[in-house]
Write a structure and sequence with these properties.
- The structure holds two protein chains of two kinds.
- Chain A is α/β, with parallel strands linked by helices.
- Chain A contains six helices and twelve strands.
- Chain A has one domain: Rossmann fold (3-Layer(aba) Sandwich), CATH 3.40.50.300.
- In chain A, a hairpin with a 2-residue loop joins strand 3 and strand 4.
- The longest helix of chain A is centred in the C-terminal third of the chain and has 18 residues, at about 210-225.
- Helices cover about 55% and strands about 20% of the residues of chain B.
- In chain B, helix 1 crosses helix 9 and helix 18 (about 640-695) packs antiparallel against helix 19 (about 700-735).
- The radius of gyration of chain B is 33 Å and the shape is elongated.
- In chain B, the strands form four sheets. A six-stranded mixed beta barrel of chain B has the order 3-4-9-6-8-7.
- Among the domains of chain B are: about 60-250, no CATH class; about 420-470 and about 640-785, no CATH class; about 495-615, no CATH class.
- The chains are: A alpha/beta, B alpha+beta.
- Bound molecules: adenosine-5'-triphosphate (ATP) and magnesium ion.
């Protein structure tokens, strides 16, 4: 068991958390049980609700969701289209604000944070990976990663991050010169280079074929194992559920059920 | 309405700000075209009609005196259609409420019947009655300035005796559209006027019964002006003829000519610049719009729309923009044109002067604008409209970015990646970047090219009033006097210093070129009136030879050491050869100078002076004026302070209106270019910017991407704009310069600073407006979609 001392500064408006120590226990790659959640969970929501208003129509996208995840956890989120998965991820990632309810990162309330505090939160603590990569086309792979390492507090080197996702050889290629899977791995490298506490992935394999998807998933599990990053992965692909500590099932804006995997599968064992 | 038209209108509404920015630039082009050409047309056509209707003469000559029957001899010259002999005399006037004397030109009206040439246009009142020696009609601008109405009185010194004149009417003449006292550089509306009086009255006062001292000639169509001029000169020579001259040298007509030249200069430079920028903006905006609608184009074609139909759809889009721009331009142009016409009517006296309503002008202005817009669209449209539908529906190939300095450059600049994004984005669209830079540069250039004239004008004022003609006043005798008259002037109350001056009207000639100018004789050591060379160093008049103003020397094509022929216009009309012994800078009119002794030696051998330049103790001004009025034989006084004030007023009003308009238009260009540039850049990079926000970049950091791009374009534009602006100023000097007036090409550094400041401010304004959009970027929406 490795213990990673995670001492970070957090946004001023969210309060001073430079004293807080997050104890993370990163399990071995194929470890069985979910990591033990220490005193406080890393991420917690309480009655988190999001209502979209479009004229007279109200869409209840998220309906009072209670959730918590400990440090080092790897969770897969499943659910039918429109069940509120992305909405949930965006809220806990600080990209959006809820209609009601609360979300906490450690002991800091995201739901009370200002716009610039949320920016600071994303900058310091959260890594995102999306279905459509969202790389900057005018920057090479290495430069895309540097974009983040330049503004993060204690980042790893861009080359290191790219090596972690197996892209050391293609560092100086522009996104247009990379395959979809490679682009997605650059996106992952970019997301983890800041050593985030939280890695949020919205359908990272959605645009990839099975073999490429597996390579990307391997990169995610590897990061989770080696850095102890708490990882939430949204997917439509039920086959992926096996690699998670826990599987969260969304339906109609609620968490319908949560299952814990007694045995995690390595990503290489997955195919679809 | 057809579906495509609905799409068109929605598109216009969505892009309203960009559309408006482009339309404003077009409007500026249309407006400058309408103002320039419209004012030109108004002045030119009004003048032509006025000349025609009131029988403006083609040829003019002054003489000492000739018997009336001589007119028949002139009338018999080949090519002469009509001839009019008149009495014209300069006279001092004493006007209630004006301390210093004013000068008037007295012109005779035929007893009975209308004037055959240069007919008056009577604005109000009536003509003087034959036999009423004390009645006169007065020129309108003078009357307005002095508040004269029919029934008002003024006193005029006619041939030494003071007469009370009753004004019976107010009139205009095609001969004095622009009225200026002889020897002045600017019209002095309250201090110089024309009085038309019955011939009998003038003949009696000046002892010219049965005689005339001025002649005007109308030529037959197709007659040769030089031939008739020579013939008239021959006939008048024995009568003290002062040399006949055509319309080109008739003061009023020449000033109008130079005004027209300036207007033509303006309308040939500015509108093309605006339309060029507008065409470029159309191209830039449409290229982006079409890139975004590529798939829709594919779809339309798959649905069976032809390539032409698709192309026409976008052409309609830019035509609508052009229509908005043209409509705004018409409004702006007519408004400013009317304003300018009112301003012109203050200096130029026409029976009616209205701003051009020629429909052709408006049609052409609109047509040119439409053409510029469509030309701007052609490239963008033709690239997209002819794509096969299947290709169009695919997303375009991803942009191929390059590294600026190869991947393995030894020196890796440790620039932030955001700077990489900025430079690569700018380099990826080189034509757009160049277009943006040039657009901004044009804005700077227009500013430099207009603001500099303020400095130039101040330089001219300083040059004339502080450096060369430093006297407080000039007293001009009504004829030459012996040198001792200077002492008489020196003894006048309040006169601190007096320097003699002799002015002789001559015809100066070199080869085929000849001009009528006044040669001024000054004492070699004159301190009030000085001559300066090109580098502003005082020139001491050499004891022999003639010193020419640069404009005149250029015109004659002579340099120091060359010889010119000089023929006096009065008295002994034999031609003398004089060596050019120096050149001086001159900005107003054609000038020639000689040392006083040398001048007298050259022409009459008797030491005579025609006036004096004086320095005055201003606290005793009133006393001086009273003394001058009491001794009218001394002559006319013209005050520098008054001239300066008038000069400033005239210039300031004309210039500031013009410059105000141009500054506003340059601002519109700068704003339009930056705004469109920024919006397009935002449209292309919005997705990346949202991604950066997701990655934890603050709003201000993301905004920097766009602001840096704008900053780079703005900075690059400055030196180019300065250079172009200087060229514009040079072009203006060339196209504005006439024999009457040369602009000194002085562009001081602050002109560049002000110009850049205006453009940077406009750029900043549009950047801040676009920045608000960056702040509102929707991160989530962007992440959901593939580009
Ligand atoms: N900006 C929005 N405006 C209005 N309604 C929205 C908006 N974003 C999401 N919704 C609605 O909220 C609900 C939840 O959307 P969400 O994107 O979270 O679903 P999801 O589970 O991620 O679906 P998918 O698997 O298709 O991505 C849906 O009904 C959706 O229509
Ligand atoms: Mg989703």
């Amino acid at each position: 068991m490795i213990r990673i001392n995670c001492r970070r500064e957090f946004t001023h408006s969210l309060g001073d958390m430079s004293q807080s120590n997050v104890a993370r226990s990163a399990p071995d790659t194929a470890g069985a049980a979910p990591p033990t959640t220490a005193a406080a969970p890393l991420l917690r929501t309480s009655k988190l609700t999001k209502i979209y208003r479009m004229g007279d129509v109200e869409v209840l996208a998220l309906d009072a969701v209670d959730f918590s995840a400990g440090a080092g956890e790897f969770d897969v989120i499943l659910g039918p289209s429109g069940s509120g998965k992305s909405t949930f991820l965006n809220l806990v990632g600080g990209l959006d604000t809820p209609t009601s309810g609360e979300a906490w990162f450690l002991d800091h309330r995201l739901t009370a944070a200002s716009e610039s505090a949320l920016t600071r939160y994303r900058r310091e603590h959260v890594g995102f990976v999306f279905q459509f990569y969202n790389l900057v086309p005018s920057l090479t792979a290495r430069e895309n990663v540097r974009l983040v390492t330049e503004i993060a507090h204690r980042p790893m080197r861009a080359e290191e991050a790219l090596e972690l996702v197996g892209l050391k050889e293609r560092m100086d290629h522009f996104p247009a010169q990379l395959s979809g899977g490679e682009q997605q791995r650059v996106a992952i490298a970019r997301a983890i280079a800041k050593r985030p506490d939280l890695l949020l992935c919205d359908e990272p394999t959605g645009a990839l074929d099975s073999a490429t998807g597996v390579v990307v998933l391997e990169a995610l599990t590897k990061v989770n194992a080696e850095l102890g990053t708490t990882t939430l992965v949204i997917t439509h692909n039920v086959a992926i559920r096996g690699i998670a500590h826990r599987v969260i099932n969304f339906a109609n804006g609620r968490i319908a059920s949560i299952e814990a995997n007694a045995h995690r599968l390595p990503a290489s064992a997955i195919s679809w | 309405m057809r579906a495509l038209h609905i799409k068109l209108l929605r598109e216009l509404r969505r892009l309203w700000a960009q559309v408006l920015a482009i339309a404003l630039v077009m409007a500026a082009g249309v407006a400058t075209l309408i103002i320039g050409v419209g004012t030109y047309q108004s002045l030119e056509r009004t003048r032509a009609l006025y000349y025609e209707a009131n029988h403006f003469a083609d040829l003019f000559a002054g003489l000492t005196r000739a018997p009336r029957p001589l007119l028949d001899e002139i009338g018999a010259i080949d090519g002469v259609l009509a001839v009019d002999g008149r009495i014209a005399k300069l006279a001092l006037a004493d006007i209630e409420g004006l301390t210093e004397p004013a000068s008037t030109l007295l012109v005779s009206l035929p007893d009975g019947g209308r004037e055959p040439l240069n007919q008056l246009y009577l604005r109000s009142g009536r003509l003087p009655e034959v036999g009423h020696a004390t009645e006169a009609v007065v020129s309108e601008i003078f009357a307005k300035a002095r508040g004269f109405v029919p029934g008002s009185h003024l006193r005029v010194v006619m041939n030494g005796s003071l007469r009370d004149i009753t004004i019976t009417g107010i009139a205009l003449s095609p001969e004095y559209i622009y009225a200026m006292a002889p020897g002045e550089t600017m019209p002095n509306e309250g201090r110089f006027g024309v009085l038309w009086m019955p011939e009998k009255a003038l003949a009696a006062a000046y002892d010219l019964q049965g005689a005339f001292n001025a002649v005007a000639v109308k030529l037959l169509p197709g007659a040769s002006l030089p031939a008739v001029t020579a013939a008239v000169d021959r006939v008048l020579a024995p009568y003290g003829g002062q040399g006949a001259y055509g319309r080109a040298q008739q003061t009023s007509n020449a000033f109008l000519d130079s005004e027209l030249t300036q207007l033509r200069g303006m309308s040939s430079v500015l509108p093309p610049v605006f339309l060029l920028v507008a065409a470029f903006l159309v191209n830039m905006t449409l290229t982006r719009l079409i890139a975004l609608e590529r798939e829709q184009i594919g779809l339309l074609k798959a649905l069976g729309y032809s390539s032409w139909a698709v192309a026409w759809h976008y052409v309609e889009f830019v035509m609508l923009i052009a229509i908005v721009g043209t409509a705004l331009g018409y409004g702006l142009g007519i408004w400013a044109g009317n304003g300018l016409t009112v301003l012109y009517a203050r200096f130029y006296s026409f029976p009616v002067l209205v701003f051009s309503r020629d429909p052709i002008l408006y049609v052409v202005a609109g047509g040119i604008t439409m053409a510029a817009a469509v030309i701007g669209a052609v490239r963008a449209v033709s690239k997209a409209a002819w794509l096969p539908p299947a290709v169009a529906m695919l997303p375009p190939a991803p942009p191929q970015y390059r590294q600026v300095l190869g991947a393995r450059t030894v020196v890796r600049l440790a620039l932030p990646q955001t700077w990489n994004m900025v430079t690569r984005h700018l380099l990826h669209w080189p034509w757009r970047t160049i277009g943006g830079v040039l657009g901004m540069a044009f804005a700077v250039a227009i500013l430099v090219g207009s603001i500099w004239s303020i400095g130039s004008m101040n330089f001219t004022i300083d040059y004339i009033f502080n450096r060369t003609e430093r006297q407080d006043a000039t007293i001009n005798f009504l004829g030459a006097k012996p040198v001792r008259a200077l002492y008489e002037i020196g003894r006048l109350p309040g006169v601190l210093a007096a320097e003699p001056q002799r002015t002789i009207g001559v015809e100066i000639r070199s080869g085929h070129v000849k001009r009528r100018v006044a040669v001024s004789g000054h004492a070699a050591g004159s301190r009030l009136t000085r001559l300066l060379d090109a580098s502003l160093v005082p020139v001491v008049l050499p004891p022999t030879g003639i010193v020419l103003g640069k404009t005149l020397a250029d015109l004659l094509g002579v340099r120091p050491g060359d010889t010119v022929e000089v023929t006096p216009l009065e008295g002994d009309r034999t031609t003398r050869q004089v060596t050019v012994t120096g050149l001086v800078e001159s900005y107003l009119g054609l000038s020639a100078y000689m040392e006083l002794g040398a001048l007298n030696a050259l022409f009459d051998h008797a030491p005579l002076i025609s006036g004096a330049n004086v320095a005055i103790d201003t606290s005793r001004e009133a006393e001086l004026f009273a003394a001058l009025k009491a001794t009218p034989a001394l002559g006319l006084i013209s005050l520098r302070a008054v001239s300066l004030e008038r000069f400033r007023e005239t210039m300031a009003e004309n210039l500031f209106v013009m410059i105000g308009v141009l500054v506003a238009m340059a601002g519109v260009i700068a704003f339009g270019v930056v705004y469109n540039f920024a919006r397009i850049s935002l449209s292309e990079q919005g997705r990346e910017m949202a991604s950066l926000r997701v990655l934890g970049f603050y709003r201000h950091e993301v905004s920097m991407l766009l602001l840096a791009e704008i900053a780079v374009v703005t900075l690059l534009a400055q030196p180019i704009g300065w250079f172009l602006g200087y060229q514009l100023a040079r072009g203006m000097v060339r196209s504005f310069s006439s024999e009457l007036f040369t602009m000194p090409l002085v562009v001081s550094p602050d002109v560049y600073v002000y110009s850049s400041a205006v453009v940077v401010a406009a750029a900043l304004l549009s950047a801040l407006i676009v920045r608000r959009r960056i702040d509102r970027l929707d991160m989530i929406a962007v992440l959901k979609t593939r580009e």
